[in-house]
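#lab-general

N.A. 3:47 PM
ok so I finally got the sequence cleaned up, no stray characters, all 276 residues accounted for. can someone with queue access submit it? mine expired

B.Y. 3:52 PM
send it over

N.A. 3:53 PM
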Amino acid sequence: MAGPRPQREAFYLPGGTAGERFCLLTLAPNAVGTLIFVHAFAEEMNKSRRMVALAVESFASRGWSTLQIDLTGCGDSGGEFEEASWQSWIQDCQDAYAWTSAHRSGQIALWGMRGGALVLADWLRSGDFAVPLLLWQPVSNGRQHLTQFLRLKAASEMLADVDAKAAMDAARASLKAGASVQVAGYAMPPALAQGFETASLGLPEAYSAPVVALELGSAGREDVTPALRLLVERWQGSGIAARAEAIAGPAFWQTLEIETCPELINASLRALEAFA
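B.Y. 4:20 PM
back already:
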């Protein structure tokens, strides 16, 4: 016999720089804690919706509620993407944490995916926070992430017989000059690009909460990528209880068809057991 279904509440957090921020709260029966989820960047956010929804449902069955916030200019939140800035996204994290602290009992934990992990890391470094952290396929270097995004523009320019390197150079020059750049249907604002340029997946020294980073790859791969391994080793060296795990599964945030990875959810559930 199935247990009680989680309840969902949609609401808007007031006070954003470009309008209210849309939030979806999934309430677990007999909740032990609440996860604050910060989504992936641009189209990766849309590609990930199915996997995130499945994970939220599974987390609720284990007593974890989830607060999903659409960052400023994303999803159903106020403002256009072009109005977003890195600082507004940092503030979104702060406001989501403040709301959760005021309205939810039990443990608070953070869950970031891809570029969302960078936003969370910058926010954590901005104040005295120590919250359990679950990372899905985290991006460790913001500049590289931005470059990968701008390559979408270069690829489209190549179809029009425009040199790809010239297109990339022109895009970066426009952003540096304070102009937005159209990339794959998104008007990339300079205030957001500047944040990516300097963002890194660093944590405060001796971060006193557990960190679990989960990375997908091909079947048979036993270790995470060297970049993530070195990052986790650096965290461990500073006294942080961090670990990384490699999981076989599709890169669902970028596949043409919507795909899922149940083992990623199972690994996340194991991580949450240590967070409670």
